[in-house]
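[Meeting: bench + compute handoff]

Bench side (C.D.) handed over the final construct sequence. Compute side (W.E.) agreed to return the predicted structure before the next meeting so the bench team could plan truncations. Sequence as handed over:
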Amino acid sequence: MKLTEAGEARIRGYLFVLGRSLRTFLPPEVATDAVKEVESHLRERAEQTEPLPDERAALERVLTELGPPLRVAQAYAAEMAVEEAVTTGRLLPIARAVWHLATTTVGGFFAAFALFVGYATGASFLILALLKPIFPENVGLYVVGGVPHGFGFFPAWPGAEGVGGYWVIPLSALLGLGLLVATHRGARRLLAWWRGRATRLRLRLEVE
């Protein structure tokens, strides 16, 4: 299908909105490259499409299959964030990728919540290891009336008794580091799985 001026205007409008949407998620230069990539794909699809029943209807069908600009921008930004996170394994890219998934999918939200709990719990154990030398009587296993009530930092209220010497420091440090490492590995595996799933879905759609 050879596009008329009206068809070209429709594509330019779509790409303009897409570019504005992408710039809310990505740096300007990255957003520009993404728009060029989408434009190339869009024009290729338009050339392969017959103008039936007319150019406008055919072009709208192509744009509908591609998706609304905001959704395309979200998917593109999430894909780039996941790719960087899986490749580098650094904490900040992983946090950005998990945030993208949490804000765009229900499953991503629950996965992000579980990862947050893992990171927060691991960090809490490390903080306990640092607090033990400062507040030796208020960090450890505490009991009230002979009944264990928890492990951590607790105020010196009447009836509360702390149990645990300085062995709490290496124990908390090991637990904290272990949880952080396990959670980080889990985050990378989750993102690698999501990337593979997205790639398989995209290939299937291209074949269809």
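W.E. noted at the follow-up: The beta strands are 139-144, 147-153, 160-163. C.D. will use this when planning the next construct.
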